């Protein structure tokens, strides 16, 4: 799988799915809003099942596994059919396990030291997390100075909203945004599929308007 294809829409919906029976309707709601990429976080017992159900029933959508903290979780994600993985931090064992299995991974970084280590480990698409808490757009602008020539690309996640989305998209070092506002845990639990579709469509419209 080509990373460029996965990130073409410049948005990944980060979702916490408490019950796997909501996975397919959620994926369908995102697609109805125009988005074809979801990250299912490994924060619930049904995460792997949710990924498997989406892969089987909604093949048009890219499905990733988030909050990967251990090598075992990487393997669980792969077994469930996840097409990429995301980690909140930089773990060498998670990194090594992903690389051994040719599994695309976006490891989390926040400091220059972590960016350097991630590059040394062979990763160029890095999750910048938690984005808003650690300086957001201004922090990414600062990091682009020493690392801009390396080809590194960031996927800022956490605290970003439809309002701040354009500010991140304007940065050339930002490959995509990880966002949860269009499918917050409460909306998924309440099965508010129409609302999720509307919020997703709004985000896609913002992204389209931001393109130069």
Oligomer classification = single chain
Question: What Rg do the Cα atoms give?
Answer: 16 Å
Main sheet strand line-up: 5-4-3-2-1-9
Unreliable residue stretches = none
- The 3D shape can be described as globular
Number of domains: 1
What share of residues is helical? 40-55%
CATH architecture tag: Alpha-Beta Barrel
SS class = alpha/beta
Average of pLDDT: 97
Sketch the major β-sheet: 6 strands, parallel
List the helices and strands and how they pair.
Blueprint: H1 3-6, E1 11-15, H2 23-32, E2 37-41, H3 47-57, E3 62-66, H4 71-80, E4 84-86, H5 92-100, E5 105-106, E6 108-109, H6 112-120, E7 125-128, H7 136-147, E8 153-156, H8 165-169, E9 177-179, H9 185-189, H10 193-210
Parallel strand pairs: 1-2, 1-9, 2-3, 3-4, 4-5, 6-7, 7-8
